Every structure is written in C-alpha cells, then in structure tokens.
Amino acid sequence: METTAREFARNFRKLRAAAARGKTVRVKTPEGVYLFTREKPAKTCGAVLEGLAAYAGRGFLTGEGAAAIEAAKRKTAPAKSPWDAAP
C-alpha cells in the first residue's frame, strides 16, 4: 500500500489499522520513502530466562545458574520511563 505524507496524516487511523493487520504502508516524502509496519513482539529478558530454566535439569545449567534464574523470575518490576518521573 503506497501513500503520500499528506494522505498518511489525513488517514492515519485507517493506515495504522492496516499496518496492525500486517500490511506494509509505504509513505513517499520528498526526503525518501518510509515504511509503516507492525513489528513482531521481541522476546524479553524474562522470556529468555524462562526458556533457559527448562534446561536446568538436563545438565545444561549448574545448580547455581538455575537458582539465579529462579531468583530473577521472582523479581518482577514494571518498566520505568523517564517521562513518568515526578518533577
């Protein structure tokens, strides 16, 4: 799907919905072409650690490593943004 910067601004809601459905929107501007698309969710550090925890009993990790993974899983804290800080 191709559009200009002006049409992109006018129809942002529709084009964002199209990108959410998996379509790629090409926005042509005088500076170049921009792609507006949905990214796949990335694995978080917690998801990687949980995946490693499955291998703990199979000899891939030591007992200390498995304990560290378990301890890290218990320490869940919400992500903090610099914009959320109180002045």
Short key terms for the protein model shown above:
87 residues; alpha+beta; 2 domains; 3-stranded mixed beta sheet; 4 helices; 41% helix; elongated
Summarize the SSE layout with pairings.
Elements: E1 2-4, H1 5-10, H2 12-20, E2 25-29, E3 32-36, H3 45-53, H4 63-74
Parallel strand pairs: 1-2
Antiparallel strand pairs: 2-3
Structural classification: alpha+beta
Count of discrete structural domains: 2
Low-confidence stretches: none
Strand-residue fraction?
5-15%
Structure description:
- By secondary structure, the chain is α+β, with helices and mostly antiparallel strands.
- It has 2 domains: 2-36; 45-76, no CATH class.
- It has 4 helices and 3 strands.
- A 3-stranded mixed sheet has the order 1-2-3.
- β2 and β3 (32-36) form a beta hairpin.
- The protein is elongated, with a radius of gyration of 22 Å.
- 1% of the residues are buried.
- The model has no long low-confidence stretch (mean pLDDT 77).
Question: Summary?
Answer:
The protein is an alpha+beta fold and 87 residues long. It is 41% helix and 15% strand.
